[in-house]
């Protein structure tokens, strides 16, 4: 991996190990360096596509895979990743009807989690 300093590697490992997207505050609780270093490392990692991001409620969240499938609770703001078995049908529609070649995707469902829904 090109130009990965110790701090960049540490942040990449944290994001890679997480089962859900993380924001800077969440990453900061796991590292020993300042917030500006975290932002610079995240910008670098994202520019090389080692990580990806999504913005929710004016907050940027980072994740490893280029395709993201997330549920976000509108009440407690909990974010979780969920597996998608196949989107080949949707990809075919995009190709055939719109002439669009998808390179990645983000599915984002907003609603209420099990705890907030009861």
UniProtKB/TrEMBL annotation:
Task: Name the needed cofactors.
Answer: Mn(2+); Fe(2+); Zn(2+)
Sequence positions that bind Zn(2+): 73, 76, 113, 116
Keywords recorded for this protein, A-Z: DNA-binding, Iron, Metal-binding, Repressor, Transcription, Transcription regulation, Zinc
Q: Which GO terms describe its biological process?
A: negative regulation of DNA-templated transcription; regulation of secondary metabolite biosynthetic process
InterPro entries annotated for this entry? FUR, Fur_C, WH-like_DNA-bd_sf, WH_DNA-bd_sf
The entry's free-text remark on the cofactor is: Binds 1 Mn(2+) or Fe(2+) ion per subunit.
Keyword Zinc assigned to the entry: answer is yes
Q: Which GO terms describe its molecular function?
A: DNA-binding transcription factor activity; transcription cis-regulatory region binding; zinc ion binding
Q: Which Pfam family is one of those matched by this entry?
A: FUR
Binding sites annotated in the UniProt record for Fe cation: 105
Signal peptide per UniProt:
none
Give the superkingdom in one word. Bacteria
Family the UniProt entry places it in: Belongs to the Fur family.
Record-given protein name: FUR family transcriptional regulator
Q: Which organism is it from?
A: Sebaldella termitidis (strain ATCC 33386 / NCTC 11300)
């Amino acid at each position: 991996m090109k130009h990965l300093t110790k701090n960049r590697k540490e942040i990449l490992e944290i994001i890679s190990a997480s089962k859900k997207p993380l924001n800077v505050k969440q990453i900061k609780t796991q590292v020993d360096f300042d917030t500006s270093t975290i932002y610079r490392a995240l910008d670098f990692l994202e520019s090389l596509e080692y990580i990806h991001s999504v913005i929710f409620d004016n907050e940027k969240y980072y994740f490893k895979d280029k395709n993201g499938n997330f549920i976000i609770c509108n009440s407690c703001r909990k974010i979780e990743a969920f597996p998608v078995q196949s989107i080949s049908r949707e990809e075919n529609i995009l190709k055939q009807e719109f002439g669009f070649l998808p390179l990645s995707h983000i599915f984002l469902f907003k609603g209420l989690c099990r705890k907030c829904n009861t």
